[in-house]
Amino acid sequence: MLSFIQPTDYSVLITDEQLAQITTEQSDIDTCILQSEEEIKEYLRHRFDVDFDMRVVTTPADPATVTALKDARLYDGTAKLYYLCIADATAQPLTNTAFFTQIDDRNQKLVQITIDVFLYHLHTRLNPRNIPTHRKIRYDGDGDIQKSMNAIKWLTMVQKGTIAPNLTVILDDDGEQLDSGQSIIYGNSKINIRGANRNFTGF
Q1: Angle, nearest 10°, between helix axes 26-44 and 108-126?
Q2: What is the pLDDT of residue 126?
Q3: Is residue 170 part of a domain?
Q4: Is residue 199 part of a domain?
Q5: What's the domain count of the chain?
Q6: Separation CA 144–CA 27 (nearest Å)
Q7: Three-class SS state of 100
Q8: What is the pTM of this model?
Q9: Is 136 inside any structural domain?
């Protein structure tokens, strides 16, 4: 399944053996990842182009002949390297710097939050009576989002404009941030993605 986070991301927090104790069904993992990504987008989409920032990562079958559109994210599973497509490419190797640059351009805080939400929901879906305490704390402070920095607290703070992550802000036709109550400057370059004005805050 194509998704924003990859097995190499969440393997940092859960081993294959631990994951197998929860489920051996890839469909369970896929479902929980999609649910987690959508939950995060619900908090952020009124201010940020989360469909762009959380676009999927593709693993090409052959890294030597890759066809991709500009801004596509790619992962070479053999070399364990991330790439960003910087120009539309047809049957080009990932090492061709005219079309690809070696970088993981995902916001790493957003990756972390997505992993925490995913692992919590995986436990909730398959073993709700035995959710590890540290998973609950990382998700919502074990029911008290104010007592520690956790996924829901971070998402709520971003939603309110208390903190400003390095994400792609949606702008109106006048170039103003849609939720303009906060006097926050997000970078200095405006780009046009898929026909809508956005202020891209960089990689």
Answers
A1: 130
A2: 83
A3: no
A4: no
A5: 1
A6: 31
A7: strand
A8: 0.84
A9: yes
